Amino acid sequence: MYLFDKDKWTEIMSALSKNKLRTFFTAFGVFWGIFMLVIMLGSGKGLKNGVNQGMGDMANNALFMWTMPTTQPYKGFPRGRRYNFRNDDTKALRENLPELEYIAPRLQVFSAQGDNNVVRGERTAAYSIQGDYPDMNKIDPMNIHEGRFINYKDIENKRKVIVIGTRVKDEMFDADEDPIGDYLRIRGVYFRVVGIFSSKKNDQQAERENQQIFMPFTTLQQTYNMGDIVGWYSMTSYKDVPASVALEKAKKIVRERHSIAPDDDRAVGSFNVETEFQKMENLFAGINGLIWIVGIGTLLAGVIGVSNIMLIVVKERTKEIGIQRAIGATPMAIQSQIVLESVFLTAMAGYIGLVLGVGILELINYLLIEFGASTDMFARPEVDFDKAIVALIILIISGALAGLIPARRATQIKPIDALRDE
Would you say 302 and 30 are in contact if contact means Cβ atoms under 8 Å apart? Predict the structure, then answer.
């Protein structure tokens, strides 16, 4: 076969090595194009990973809903009325909103910025105390390092158990102490530690979450005389249901239950993660599109350079081509040789650019991890395997096209004219 013809490959290597400097700069254009494409794709992915890492593993269809003062008078109630969600609202949402996959009523009674609320021996500190349901760990997952998270037995029996963040553990326990089974006193009430968690997010958000303490929602309500008040709701819709649809239905239910005007959109506060997630997806899709346009443009500039140089090579080898034609070489054989030279040159330069680009990204990733420099804006720069394959395919096709015009030019040379060429 032509591809495995040793003489042809020897001839190709000889042709490319006749002018090493020209070959180098021709190949460099292709190398730089694929190198920059890989670097830009990896940087775009690093930006996306950084933003996603900042969100941890939070469900991308998560919903949050809380109460706000009413902005319209309705059914005899004045404007500016304040109200609270109640346990009955939780029941109503579960029974009347089949679009919800998970729903977790929540309460926060003490803030980490308040007075010291947690005591163990001579140690005191201020932490955020959250009352939650087990479903919360499915909506906004966390790393459970030891023990477990809150379960439904804790909810039903109103157990005095807590799950503490890693910062709470470090500050309230010695390094050689095992917190599991031990007790912390929170506002005068003792709670047994059943789990230790850490946030999956990073930077300041992770630091804030790691100084939280979770207890069963029902326990917090009863222990601290919260009655049947619900602070706010965390929810997710089923995957085949738009989160916005579930959110609007949830708002409608609570408006009806609390005598709020149907068009009072500001009386129920909300945050739809799906909407924000989609905005980010669209943003990164735009960034990727721009990267491909710029990268392929740079790559094509290099490929055009290859085509121009191959035209010069054909001109320089006019007499050689004439001799080949005179001794019986077919136009197809001449074309194949020129195209193969072009493909070989672009493929080798592109492969080196691809490997070096991936290597640079791996080095950057290593340095980010080694020095703890990953942030919620940039983390784990990488290139997807399928995108690398697409880039190589584009490169090979471009190389073939770059050699096609010079190849056709070579076959148009008449043997007798070529032999007369000086």
Answer: yes
Tokens of 373: 């420099």
Q: If DSSP states are collapsed to H, E and C, what string results for the chain?
A: CHHHCHHHHHHHHHHHHCCHHHHHHHHHHHHHHHHHHHHHHHHHHHHHHHHHHHCCCCCCCEEEEEECCCCCCECCECCCCCCCEEHHHHHHHHHHCCCEEEEEEEEEEECCCCCCCEEECCEEECCEEEEECCCHHHHCCCEEEEECCCCHHHHHHCCCEEEEEHHHHHHHCCCCCCCCCCEEEECCEEEEEEEEEECCCCHHHHHHHCCEEEEEHHHHHHHCCCCCEECEEEEEECCCCCHHHHHHHHHHHHHHHCCCCCCCCCCEEEEEHHHHHHHHHHHHHHHHHHHHHHHHHHHHHHHHHHHHHHHHHHHHCHHHHHHHHHCCCCHHHHHHHHHHHHHHHHHHHHHHHHHHHHHHHHHHHHHHHHCCCCCCCCCCCCCCHHHHHHHHHHHHHHHHHHHHHHHHHHHCCCHHHHHHCC
Q: What are 404's two structure tokens?
A: 């096609």
**CA nearest 67: which of 52, 81, 84?**
84
Q: What is the pLDDT of residues 125-174, one digit of tens each?
A: 999 999 999 999 999 889 999 999 999 999 999 999 999 999 999 999 99
Q: How is residue 352 written in tokens? A: 């080196």
Half-sphere exposure of 177 (CA within 13 A, CB side): 15
Predicted TM-score (pTM) of the model is 0.69
Q: Tokens standing for 38?
A: 């890989």
34 and 394 Cβ atoms separated by less than 8 Å: no
Picking from 361, 348, 419, 259, the residue whose alpha carbon sits closest to that of residue 30 is 348
Query: pLDDT tens digit string along 267-304?
Result: 999 999 888 888 888 888 888 888 888 877 877 777 77
* Helices 273-316, 385-411: inter-axial angle, 10-degree rounding: 30
Residue 165's closest CA among 121, 105, 106, 215?
Answer: 215
Q: Which of 352, 345, 258 is nearest to 305 (CA)?
A: 345
| Percentage above 70 pLDDT, the chain | 80
- Least Cα distance to 51 among 201, 249, 225 occurs for 201
User: For the segment 324-353, what is each residue's pLDDT rounded down to a tens digit?
Assistant: 656 666 666 666 777 777 777 777 888 888
| Backbone φ and ψ of 171, nearest 5° | -90, -25
